[in-house]
Amino acid sequence: MTGPTRFGVFMAPFHALNENPTQAIRRDVELAEHLDRLGYQELWVGEHHSGGFEIISQPEIFIAAAAERTKNIRLGTGVKSLPFYHPMIVADMMAQLDHMSQGRVLFGVGPGALPSDAYQMGIEVADQRRRMDEAIEVIIPLLQGETVSRESDWFTLNEARLQLSCYTKPRMEMAVTSMRSPAGMIAAGKYGLGVLVLGGVSDEALAHYVDNWGICQETAEEHGNTVSRDDWRITMMVHCAETREQALKDVEFGFGAWARYAQDVLPASPVPKDAADPIAYAQENKVAVFGTPDDIIAEIERVSGAVGGFGTMLIFANNWARWDATLKSYELISRYVAPHFTGARDGRIASYDMATEKHDGFSQSFMKASDASREAYEAKKAVKGKAAE
Fold this sequence. Notes:
14 helices, 2 domains, single chain, 8-stranded parallel barrel
């Protein structure tokens, strides 16, 4: 595997505090429709309950709305924070959503990204990964139609069984979020699930991912499972324009507000508070790429080469640019970046190269045929002229 064969978007979403939230969410739905028209294969929608920027609290509600307005794109929870819910409720919601989307739903799970979310619910951050694992352990059999009895310090299941089985058999595709710690990779290996990497693509981060992937493979083997790089999704922060200068000008609109949010709210900001120029820092330290389709291609190749290949490239939706420039960025990536990796251009290029290589011979044959046709016509005309005499 040399590069991703699928392209999608991971939408937290990020919306600056000075925006109308109603309009922001409507634009998120419009983005889902835009991505579907452009041929993106996946859209993952986040869940957050605090911080003010990431304002979708229930990705299932958003996915249900988006499923009615799209035709082909697969829609995923990105991710469902399992420690916040009774696992049977989560399994029930996902089974229903699988039917409502007619099999286009993806089930991303995680422990919860923001400590402020857990704080408000009285959940210890130290318990979140344990709770995630305990939830996955019962949700999978529930989705597969099994009867489950289990008691934990935070939920009880008494001969629990879903009344509505999944539309997708035996269940919808699942993936676990992973950042720097190996917790997500361990869960993916333990249960044979895909992986959603959300932790940036600096050289240091990529080295962590390689180590964690080894842990994932070891864990999978211990539990009799197999994991595939094809089910490995990596998010990347990019903004694409027709020139680098235009891309940099575009992100001046909203990158600063996003950087301040990352510094003030996120557990680990990719842009430090003492960065004099956040945009320049992000570019120089491989936090994000602001550039042309060729720049984005080069960045994907760098990431893929560093980790040894992965299946899906997810653009981290950011709203750094104005709306029209944001839509244009996704269009440029779908037109010029994705085909470089998916092979969509290969047949055309091979045909063009063959025609170019044989062009002189084809031209000579064409001219000879044309001359012969003209000569035949003149000869026939001459015969008719003689007959008329």
